[in-house]
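HUMAN: Please help interpret these tokens:
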Amino acid sequence: MIRPTPTTSTKKRSTAIVLMEHLTKLNYTTLFGIWAGMAVLFAFFYFGLSYLSGGEHGPSQFHNMAPALRFYNALYYSVITATSTGYGDITPHGISKIVACMQSISALFVFAVFVTKLVSHQQEMTLNEVHRLTFEDVFHNTREGMFIARKDFDHIIRFAERNKKLDTEQWENLTIAYSQLQTLFEEIPDFYQNEVHRYTIDKKREELLLEAAQRTLHRINQMLDTLSEQGIDWLSHEPSMKELNELVRIVSSMTPMWKEKSPYEAAEAFEDIFQMKERMHLKIINSIS
């Protein structure tokens, strides 16, 4: 397959894009320094042109001026041209027209980069704020979801102690709670992915999340113990057992990733989660045996 040869306009456009990308990486002070330096540089051009051919190629009204005053007016005209103000008190003649055109285009280009960078910075700040609010919302929903699951387990525990059995509604609530916890635990490692959230969980929030996970797994173990004590065969209920086994699998695979991604020293808290997960796993194995 024959690829088309890039045209000259395409190459120039690519060069302009690359140049703009490099300029947008500069800070505002540097960009202003470039703009101001260009204004001074063009002022020297106007100053020199005012002496060329008796001033025919320089800006008007520079005749019979002292050098210092002439440069002052050249700098004034250069700034006016760079800002596209155009008062009309000084006008270009001859070669200075070409120079003024070049300055206008280059000054507008730098100004466009400055505005682009400013808008991009504002967009970046807005995007970071959106990600932060989204992160906070997901974080609170995760802890709240675990809290609701613990409440469901508490209700099941009280119901089992009072009735020595579970009705259809309680089994359904248990199955749904296991299923919801699977999703909540799967999302925990995402809190440490900067490229996804642009916001990393801090130490205090990690402690709250670890506490919520610990209490939730502890409550499951407590509930299973209560069901066994009340003679309720929780192992024979296939829908809930399917979700419980999946939950144990997710916790087993998620916790090492969570621990690895965490930048904080919380080995003891992670060890507690491992132990609670193993207790759940052993209960299932012992019940099967």
Q: What stands out?
A: Confidence is low (pLDDT under 50) at residues 8-12. Residues 26-93 form one domain.
